[in-house]
Amino acid sequence: MKKFILLPTILCYFIATAALAADAPGMTPVAPALQPSLAGKASGTETVSEHAPTTKAAQLHAYTVEELYKNSQKLNKEKVVVHGQVVKMTSGIMGKSWTHIQDDTGDKKTGTNDLICISGTAQPEVGDEVTFTGTVTFNPESRYRLTLEDATIIE
């Protein structure tokens, strides 16, 4: 008897979740966990919806956000440089700052346009153009499958 009740309950949950995701402003039904919301403000975060720069950093080991996603397995645990515009900044997560940067590369629908740079000291403002250096961490099972750990802003 429990099997007959459980199956419709699970099915209703998935249908309701999909309907809510499709109706939510700024959300796409494809890979919603990978997409930061670029509209509005949430507690402890700042967001901006303007277009990011397409300038690639000039340093050695420099990549665009899209290139980091395309080469994420090969670059895992490697130190890289990436340049972009801060589109979201959240501080105080596990004692660190999580800075989302974009550079007009990648695909918003698949979430390959946004890179999270995790830092203990960097506190850029939303809208700033920054160049980060840090270690690529690729974890396909994680909600944030690609991050830049121990990120620092370079001049």
Walkthrough of the structure:
The protein has 155 residues and is α+β, with helices and mostly antiparallel strands. It folds into two domains: 2-30; 33-154, Beta Barrel (OB fold (Dihydrolipoamide Acetyltransferase, E2P)). Helices cover 21% and strands 33% of the residues. The protein contains three helices and seven strands. The protein has helices at residues 2-23, 65-70, 72-75; strands at 45-47, 62-63, 79-93, 96-102, 115-119, 129-138, 146-154. It has a five-stranded mixed barrel with strand order 3-4-5-7-6. Strand 3 (79-93) and strand 4 (96-102) form a beta hairpin. The radius of gyration is 17 Å and the shape is globular.
Give the SSE map.
Elements: H1 2-23, E1 45-47, E2 62-63, H2 65-70, H3 72-75, E3 79-93, E4 96-102, E5 115-119, E6 129-138, E7 146-154
Parallel strand pairs: 2-3, 5-7
Antiparallel strand pairs: 1-3, 3-4, 3-6, 4-5, 6-7
